[in-house]
Amino acid sequence: MNRSGTRSLFRMVLRFCLAVVGVGALAVAAPADDGRDGPNQQERGGPGQQREHDLLLSGQQVFRFDTFGDEAFWGDTLRLHQAIEGSRFGGVGAGVSPRTALAVGLKVDVDALPGALQRALRAGQVNLDDPAVTLTLLKLNAVVGLTGSFRSGLALQSIGIQCALCHSTVDNSLAPGIGHRLDGWANRDLNVGAIVSLAPDLSAVAGLLGVDQGAVRKVLAAWGPGKFDAELFLDGKGFRPDGKTAATLIPPAFGLAGVNLHTWTGWGSIPYWNAFVATLEMHGKGSFSDSRLSDPSQFPIAARAGFDNVRSEPDLVSSKLPALHRYQLALAAPRPPHGSFNEAAAERGGRVFNNARCNSCHVPPTFSEPGWNLHPAGELGVDAFQADRSPAKGYRTAPLRGLWTHMKGGFYHDGRFPTLLDVVNHYDPLLGLHLSAQEKSDLVEYLKSL
């Protein structure tokens, strides 16, 4: 797009500035009652229900839009915003076009777009190769999980990330990667490593890990779509002993009500992990305490950096944990769409599931285990590498509802089993189930039906 085209696009956006700035704040604070965001006013009842509704809305706001002050890291330190805007707008390099942004798994919230821009996108009248369009989308707060702050025009001042970056996607209702938000869904298209690698200056990360920037970029390049390594900043292990990436699949953040440990390797509860991620991974300004991270033999990076006891002033995380926790508990696992599984086979597969005692670990209705839902690697017939990177040194019994939403990237913590049938084939000899081919097929259909 030439300068004239850029000015024309920007003028189109400016025509909607009153809507974006004037009523946009109201739209964020009180999402439309469309069945996905909570009960409508008539259904809220008395003061207690109103407080509950307000808490949910506050949690949704935090989940979708709060950076916890992490712009100081992603913008001020890594200067990621400069790579996004490009030299044309005061940054570095060519900038990031919408086509590139979508290719690395970033998503666009259609509900944040003015109607004219939606129509232009449908008509193919928006230049998806122009970084100015990406900046315009950021200015509209339409890029899921990213918030840009601007100096003037389309020139970025900084950039921050939110929970929704990894744990939301969209329904592709307008185009691939552009649609209505689906909070809690794992974004298995998101190439976190590729995005972070865009940053011009990774010296802070290299310094933390005690390596050079080239080594950091090599680790990030190995992650691929749908994976992230939360333990890298704790133990410095970028690769498994077999040479594969140490990163694990991004898990869903829905269906966690009633589930105790909710990470792959059982670090802690939902509010524990929220504080952990917001403070240590997103690099927000928060407080976090876990004496287990002071162990230099297991967590040399964390122990040296003092991650076992972090205090920030001001603390932009702790006060938001209750609302964020409540919102996540309200995110139910979505039901599979009609026709996505064979109903008759799924009914038979349910009987296989029970007869094979799969339900002894995957207990309905959470399809995890009540209580301490963690197992040593030997019980699962897999290596202990990832389990040994956590304090509890085990693997969680993963909830099974909503499996159909995150089948991309494989199954288990690292995606080692490409399909559900591969998972069944792994457990069949391990547990001595002796399932027939038909029973295995039926069991897969049942898992898809949850």
What would you say this structure looks like, in words?
With 450 residues, the protein is mainly alpha-helical. The chain has a domain at 3-36 and 68-190. Helix content is 40%, strand content 8%. The protein is built from 20 helices and twelve strands. It has a two-stranded parallel ribbon. Strands 2-3 form a two-stranded antiparallel ribbon. β2 and β3 (155-161) form a beta hairpin. The longest helix has 19 residues, at 47-65. It is globular, with a radius of gyration of 23 Å. The N and C termini lie far apart (46 Å). The relative contact order is 0.10.
How much helix, percentage-wise, in residues?
A: 40-55%
Count of discrete alpha- or pi-helical segments spanning 4 or more residues: 20
Largest sheet: 2 strands, parallel
Query: How many angstroms does the end-to-end distance come to?
Result: 46 Å
Would you tell me the overall average pLDDT? Answer: 91
Let me know the number of strands. Answer: 12
Low-confidence stretches: 1-43
Shape: globular
Strand order of the largest sheet: 1-5
Strand content: 5-15%
Query: From the alpha-carbon coordinates, what is the Rg to the nearest angstrom?
Result: 23 Å
Observed structural traits:
12 strands, mainly alpha, two-stranded parallel sheet, disordered N terminus, 40% helix, 450 residues
Give the SSE layout.
Layout: H1 3-14, H2 17-29, H3 47-65, H4 71-77, H5 80-85, H6 98-103, E1 108-109, H7 115-122, H8 131-139, E2 146-152, E3 155-161, H9 164-167, E4 168-170, E5 178-179, E6 181-183, H10 192-197, H11 203-209, H12 213-223, E7 227-228, H13 232-235, E8 248-249, H14 270-281, E9 288-289, H15 300-305, E10 309-310, H16 321-329, H17 343-355, E11 374-375, H18 377-380, E12 395-396, H19 420-430, H20 437-449
Parallel strand pairs: 1-5
Antiparallel strand pairs: 2-3, 4-6, 7-8, 9-10, 11-12
Helix pairs in contact: 3-16, 14-16, 17-20, 19-20
